[in-house]
């Protein structure tokens, strides 16, 4: 049986990173995690797996932090990123988490399906994420696209 119909849940490591990112006083700017499947005999299981976190560099703009996060994305690895968007909108400073599902076309079909079928699960597990952006190519992940998706 293929692993595409499976849903995952956020483990304690991802939940702890999410709790830290939600605090506006934290230096955490992004959480990056993927889906790891394991096959034992005829049974395949899947779980979210933390890849890494990225701290905010206060000497840089939020756009520069966004671009630094983009540099970590690989063409052969799909993942989810929760990025702490910070920007000004209508004269107010905004702080909103943005869920990015990175699903490059170079991935196997089953891996793309796992990313697509688990995006809503990520939103349920990480309460408070309301906005998301899906991309298959890096040029779709401009800072302006992220701001537009977040507003």
Q: What would you note in describing this structure?
A:
With 151 residues, the chain is an alpha+beta fold. The chain has one domain: Severin, CATH 3.40.20. The protein is 30% helix and 35% strand. It contains four helices and five strands; from the N terminus they run H-E-E-H-E-E-H-E-H. It has helices spanning 12-22, 62-70, 109-125, 143-150, and strands at 28-40, 43-55, 79-89, 92-102, 131-135. The protein has a five-stranded mixed beta sheet, sandwiched between helices. The chain is globular and about 55 Å long.
From the N-terminal CA to the C-terminal CA, the straight-line distance is 40 Å
Number of domains: 1
Number of helices: 4
- The low-confidence runs, each spanning 5 or more residues with pLDDT under 50, are none
Structure classification: alpha+beta
- Proportion of residues in extended strands: 35-45%
Biggest beta sheet attributes: 5 strands, mixed
Query: Taking Cα atoms only, what radius of gyration do you get, to the nearest Å?
Result: 15 Å
